[in-house]
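Notes from hallway chat w/ T.B., transcribed later so I don't forget. T.B. wanted the structure written out for a chain they're using in a teaching module, and asked if we could keep both sequence and structure tokens in one place. Agreed to drop them here.
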Amino acid sequence: MTWVLFNTGILYVAIRKLPIQKTGQNLILIFSSVEMLNASSWVQSNALIAACIIFGFSFIWEGKDKWGLFFILIAVFIKIYGIVGFAFFFFSKNKMRFILWSVIWSVIFFIAPMLIAPPHFIIKSYADWYHGLQKKSAKNIRLDIHNDYQDISAMGILRRLFGLKYLKDIWVLVPAALLFVSQYLPYRYFKDARFGLYLLCSVLLFPVIFSTGSESPTYIIAFPAVCLWYWLQPKNIFIHVLFITAFLITSFSYSDILTPWFRDHIARPYAIKALPNVIIWCVIVAQILTRQFLKVSTSKLWQPNNFAV
């Protein structure tokens, strides 16, 4: 119970730290609550990872690289998903300080467990962790064992929908990585918080929708990003329909609300929970490349004067 409350509480605080108006924070908290309940029932650390990535962004944006990297490196050492936090490097006001604190926290977190266990045991544990992840990934993508609680990702959708037993992740990950990197092309807007918030949405979604290890409770990392993206949008029918569809499919596809038949015959077998999140990530990339973030009203942001236009 204490662990669940801690995960819930730290994500709440992280969302409250986002540089957007309180109404937007409330929207994220309310619409992410179903995913938070789902994640809590699995008693995992996904909410903590989401909080650490958000804290990393917020502190780095404020020029507090030391604390931003503290949270990013905590996430990395708990669950490799946290490595996406290094995407905020270009938001740092002092790149050398960013690198320095990355090294300092990495060393501290690497040796800290050695205070209570022998160094050789800790090093072996890291090696076992790596090999364990490799074996788990190989198992996650197998279609012959009906392991449909795993690989709820873009690759999982393709594998299951088209029966592609031998689909190599690299065929999806390489184009996805190139698209992700392309988001840095509008480099002149690195100091614009609207761009920063769009990139935060992309960063939170990316490791979930492109990981074979993604499970249903992993989406507490991704769905706050969907809510933040929705809050930033100039509203129209397309945006409303896309968000409502994402909310229903992401948060309720495993529940009885969309019927047990949908869960057992559509949602689980075809990893449908990932689909609206993949679509929204693609929309975010397109919006960044077409400078759509410049249409975000600064009235939605916490400090509307601190932006480069």
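Follow-up for T.B.: The two ends are 46 Å apart (CA to CA). Might be a good example for the class.
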